[in-house]
Specification:
CATH topology of the largest domain: Ribosomal Protein S5, domain 2
Oligomer: single chain
Bound molecules: 4-diphosphocytidyl-2-C-methyl-D-erythritol 2-phosphate, adenosine-5'-diphosphate
Strand content: 25-35%
Number of helices: 8
Helix content: 25-40%
Number of strands: 11
CATH class of the largest domain: Alpha Beta
Length: 276
């Protein structure tokens, strides 16, 4: 098969504004209720249909990312029953609670759909719990173990700083340390927020249930959250996913940029961003 013209896809960082763990299935997977948004920072992929699968990982965060069949980008193509050549320009820290691998997998599935004209496979949760929500990459409520994705229309756009303190937290270890597995869900239906300030006030009454276990596993996360909350521009600080990346919400883009400059540390990944 002659290679097709490559298509480009952006794989944005996934942020769990809330992450409520509401139960556990008999197979051990946890039931979640999470308000998920996407950042304007992320990985960049190009892919083309080809005879043999290939993956080239480059970019500032390429180190340590598997370049072989373990990579979720290649596994996504396999799930779609397609052979592609993928160039992955990695900007997101891995194993960081911002769904880098899942967002790459979703970007591959979107790219393959554009190349073949076929719809993505149904059962994408098998690739990873975050893949279904990363497929549309739009603000959504995520439930079940990740397979139930309900778009949230008109979510006010937020300004934020993302900070990863340079430690990896293993997702299973984080779930395993939960004190309780049956915690209250978010309200149903979700409220309609009048604007960013209203949304932030409401978020302050919600939770990330994985934050206490992650802080126990990696106390540097608790220190980071304390630093974020002490900053004059911070309206709300919380961890995303199973960590260790945390986000601080600010009133304006200028505040996010100024806060990011104040937070610069050698081992930290710090990004001002917009979430929507
Ligand atoms: C916690 C979340 C929240 O969005 O984000 P991350 O921290 O990964 O970004 C996700 O549910 C993670 O998604 P993902 O990383 O794709 O999960 P998977 O590969 O399917 O699962 C990794 C491991 O996490 C645990 N797991 C994951 C999802 C879930 N609903 N219940 C679980 O108990 C299981 O121990 C599983 O073996
Ligand atoms: N494309 C990818 N990018 C990053 N990590 C990947 C990728 N494919 C597989 N992995 C593996 O998946 C693990 C989880 O990565 P990632 O999806 O970034 O984290 P998280 O689930 O915490 O958001 C990493 O430890 C890495 O070895």
């Amino acid at each position: 098969m002659a290679e097709t013209q490559p298509v480009a896809e952006f794989a944005p960082a996934k942020i769990n504004l809330t992450l409520h763990v509401t139960g556990q299935r008999p197979d051990g997977y946890h039931l979640l209720d999470s308000l998920v948004v996407f950042a304007d920072v992320g990985d960049r992929l190009t892919l083309a249909l080809s005879d043999t699968p290939a993956l080239n990982v480059t970019g500032p965060r390429a180190e340590g990312v598997p370049g072989d069949a373990r990579n979720l980008a290649l596994r996504a193509a396999e799930t779609a029953g397609t052979t592609v050549r993928i160039a992955l320009d990695k900007h997101l820290p891995a194993a960081a609670g911002i769904g880098g691998g899942s967002s790459d997998a979703a970007a591959v599935l979107r790219g393959i759909s554009r190349l073949t004209g076929l719809a993505p496979p149904d059962d994408t949760v098998r690739l990873g719990a975050d893949v279904p929500v990363c497929l549309p990459a739009r603000a959504a409520r995520m439930q079940g173990v990740g397979e139930i994705v309900t778009p949230v229309a008109d979510l006010p756009r937020l300004h934020a700083v993302l900070v990863n303190p340079g430690v990896e937290v293993a997702t299973p270890a984080c779930f395993a340390r939960l004190a309780t597995r049956t915690n209250p869900p978010m309200p149903d239906p979700l409220p309609r927020w009048s604007g960013p300030a209203d949304l932030i006030d409401w978020l302050a009454t919600m939770r990330n249930d994985l934050e206490p276990p992650a802080c126990h596993i990696a106390p540097v996360i608790a220190d980071l959250l304390e630093t974020l909350r002490a900053d004059p521009a911070c309206r709300l600080a919380r961890m995303s996913g199973s960590g260790a990346t945390c986000f601080a919400l600010t009133d304006t883009a200028a505040h996010a940029r100024a806060m990011a400059a104040r937070l610069s540390r050698p081992q930290w990944w710090v990004q001002p961003t917009r979430l929507s």
